[in-house]
Fold this sequence. Notes:
Elements: E1 2-5, H1 10-21, E2 26-32, H2 36-39, H3 44-58, E3 61-66, H4 68-84, H5 91-110, E4 115-117, E5 122-127, E6 130-135, H6 152-156, E7 158-159, H7 167-176, H8 198-202, E8 211-215, E9 220-224, E10 252-257, E11 262-266, E12 275-286, E13 297-300, E14 308-316, E15 319-329, E16 336-341, E17 344-354
Parallel strand pairs: 1-2, 1-4, 2-3, 4-7, 8-11
Antiparallel strand pairs: 5-6, 6-17, 8-9, 10-11, 12-15, 12-17, 13-14, 13-16, 14-15, 16-17
Amino acid sequence: xxxxxxxxxxxxxxxxxxxxxxxxxxxxxxxxxxxxxxxxxxxxxxxxxxxxxxxxxxxxxxxxxxxxxxxxxxxxxxxxxxxxxxxxxxxxxxxxxxxxxxxxxxxxxxxxxxxxxxxxxxxxxxxxxxxxxxxxxxxxxxxxxxxxxxxxxxxxxxxxxxxxxxxxxxxxxxxxxxxxxxxxxxxxxxxxxxxxxxxxxxxxxxxxxxxxxxxxxxxxxxxxxxxxxxxxxxxxxxxxxxxxxxxxxxxxxxxxxxxxxxxxxxxxxxxxxxxxxxxxxxxxxxxxxxxxxxxxxxxxxxxxxxxxxxxxxxxxxxxxxxxxxxxxxxxxxxxxxxxxxxxxxxxxxxxxxxxxxxxx
Length: 360
């Protein structure tokens, strides 16, 4: 039996339809990962209702599970600690590894499922006895970056029915199938944050603390409410008005000092403090179970980035340095570097340090 992870969106709904149409026994499960009472923004009830409506349309058994406690312990606690440390985490990556492809899969197996199916835009293949994660066919929707931290065992148990489709085809086929969610707007961002600014959400757990905004010469430009709320390369929400003698151009965060609670900015988009060519990585994961050997590597340091040629050098059991052929803009500690060979996602790690100059 295949258990489909149904979010109430069009991608997972069509995935459920495709699995059902294959003739294999299947069921759907909705996972709730956040308690609305804590945030008041995540429309889990409406999404669960949509998922159930699709399951009813398809004649599938339907289950709901609340994983909010597991999410808090294994994803959100890490998310907060990273921000307290001045880093910028990506909770979606940890959620996939710890919740969607672990806790969800375990509950599905308890109900008799041998595999799980999701609406992710990725593909997989089996070669030489190993399961390989491949980019989705739709370059604009490919989600392999967010799945680099899953294991060989998790990938072996996963199916991705829409990974070989482009988004317009998914919507068209959902419409043709009469699925009630065929025109539903795609969700964006992190569910527990909703439509609010990230800094407003974080302030509930990370108390604001006034500090200075200075340029790279040390000139005081303004005040902020906490260095933890800013990330390298950020240009929105700085609150810097007209500065005497400055150009009429955007300001970018080029560094921050957590000890003094100071944020440093510049109007130079390509400031030296935003240029890094060598990154130290931790929390490495290789989907095959071991590091790649021999083949040329490319990597990206953010989701929408094009692949960047690089080389990898081990510095410890769970540590490595990646050397890019060209400097990378705003490489941010806490974010992930994900490695590829052609269409195959090999794995990745979390940025710990960079060789960019420290702006203080």
